Amino acid sequence: MAPKNKKSEKKGLLQTFYTKYFTIDFAKSLIFNPAQLSLLTYFILTVELALNIFIVFRVRYTEIDWIAYMQECEGFINGTLDYAQLKGDTGPLVYPSFFVYIYSLLYFITSRGSNIRLAQFIFIAIYLLQLWLVLRLYSKTRKVPPYIIIISIFTSYRIHSIYSLRLFNDPVAILFLYIALNLFMDRKWSSGSVIFSLAVGIKMNILLFAPAILMLYLACLGFLRTIYQLSICASVQLLIGAPFLLTHPISYIKGSFDLGRVFEHKWTVNYRFLDRETFENSTFHVALLILHLVLLVVVTKPCYLFFKNYARLRTLQAQFEPQIAAENREIEQEIQQKMKKLKKKVNDKEEQLSTEQKNFLKSFEKGLKNQFGEQNQPKPEPKDEDDPKKVEIHFDQCVQLAILPIFLINFIGIVCARSLHYQFYVWYFHSLPYLSWFTDYHTSFKILILFLIEFCWNQYPSTVFSSVLLHACHTILLFGVIRKIYKEVAMAKQASSKQK
Predict the structure, then answer these.
(1) I want to staple 201 with a disulfide (CB 3.0 to 4.6 A). Which of 98, 308, 341, 443 is the partner?
(2) Number of domains forming the structure of the chain
(3) Inter-residue contact 70 to 107 (CB < 8 Å)
(4) 498 CB contacts (<8 Å, ≥6 apart)?
(5) Exposed e or buried b for every residue in 260-287, given b needs 16+ CB within 10 A?
(6) pLDDT (0 to 100) of residue 261
(7) Can the keyword Endoplasmic reticulum be found in this entry's annotation (predicted)?
(8) Which of 103-112, 224-233, 324-333 has the lowest mean pLDDT?
(9) Residue 169 DSSP symbol
(10) How far apart are alpha carbons 69 and 35 in whole angstroms?
């Protein structure tokens, strides 16, 4: 009788799987329920792999900075350590030392930069790894419905172009950033600090996240441990910059961390409506810096409160997880004992019947079906409602409280940037669905904002209209996020005062 039981058990499992997952309700949940995003992650990655390979083979590669990167790294490989002497077709080297190391490695892998197709496939891998890290964070937060993430990822012409067809260093820096963010959310602080500092060592724009990371350190680790993490970041910078700092320190610092660098007006996406003179005016740059600092001051208090609440929930998680694990072990043992008793009872009943009796019962049951139909069949025994269920708490949802301030503070830097070039879109593209879904705007309006921002970035060359529209979308989105974050803080205060 054992083989028969196994067959029926297997059939029951298949039927349970079919009734649970092959339903309209489950299909809807895959589209609209943020908790289901983790199930769709590998589907998204598979589609993106196919899409990017298709783009590489069907769309012509456009040379912009790759040859210049290779020329700059070739000078380093040949022994030049003076940043003032490391130059390419687009001008002097303006990126920190870790950029030089990574692109020097790519220089050798791609046969001195000549194997463009291989470089494109490497950047597809970079894109897919970064996308997996982004989706991992979104899955933890359970904030944004999957259909929004899927639409924004699959339909972004500009993002696919930047990763697969342009080979800029921005995607590499952002990859390291998202590795660091995932490590921070996993509470692997020292590893996160090392990777974050390496990201800064690829491109300086990662410093836009620095105020948020500092507040995260202070809220979760306290002052002394924050100093320790900052020392790790500083040590990494000294270590990777050592060959240049020990030989031509001023040239290295001035070249790789030049805060006063003037961008070319012809490449600007966000300030096309300004004339060149105003765009390059230092007073205008100072005004944007002051606006940036003012906005950071405006959001500092609510952001820090979000980080503090995140730290408290993580502390509670550390206290409750061992208790929950112990309770679940007891429940598992109880379920196993019940299953053993049930199997024994079934086997005992089967042993009590002879083969002749079983055949008689089957033929009798068949006769009843033919005579009276299916409606009079005995109903299956109801499940025991008292069966124990495992305790499940999705602690990782508290990641919402940390990710929002990090994305917001970076977004403020984007809004106040002196200029945005097309490759800079990767600096904040993957945070836009989260920021828009945090606001109180109507769903259709949130989608409209995302669509219009994508539209602005797809205009080449940028126009007065696209630049003005981009600023309008940024301002509306920023206002919605700041208003909501203050509203959340006020509601939390009211709730705590009522408890007292």
Answers:
(1) 98
(2) 1
(3) yes
(4) none
(5) eeeeebeebbbbbbbeeeebbeeeebee
(6) 75
(7) yes
(8) 324-333
(9) S
(10) 42
The answer to whether the beta carbons of residues 64 and 139 sit under 8 Å apart is no
Residue for token digits 């995140």? 310
Task: Report d(CA 128, CA 164) in Å as an integer.
Answer: 11
Taking only the tens place, the pLDDT of each residue in 87-117 is 999 889 999 999 999 999 999 999 999 999 9
Residue 27 DSSP SS3: helix
Q: Examine residue 192 and state whether it is found in any structural domain, yes or no.
A: no
Residues 446 and 437: beta-carbon distance below 8 Å: yes
Q: Is residue 287 part of a domain?
A: yes
User: Domain range holding 275?
Assistant: 267-338+401-500
Q: What is the DSSP letter of 423?
A: G
Amino acid at 430: H
Asked if the structure places residue 489 within a domain, the reply is yes
Residue 235: which H helix or E strand, with range? helix 210-245
Per-residue pLDDT of 426-463, as tens digits, reads 999 999 999 999 999 999 999 999 999 999 999 999 99
Please indicate, yes or no, if residue 225 is contained in any of the structural domains: no
DSSP per residue, 78-123: TT---GGG-EETTEE--S-HHHHHHHHHHHHHTTTTT-HHHHHHHH
Longest distance between any two alpha carbons in the chain, whole Å: 101
pTM above 0.85, yes or no: yes
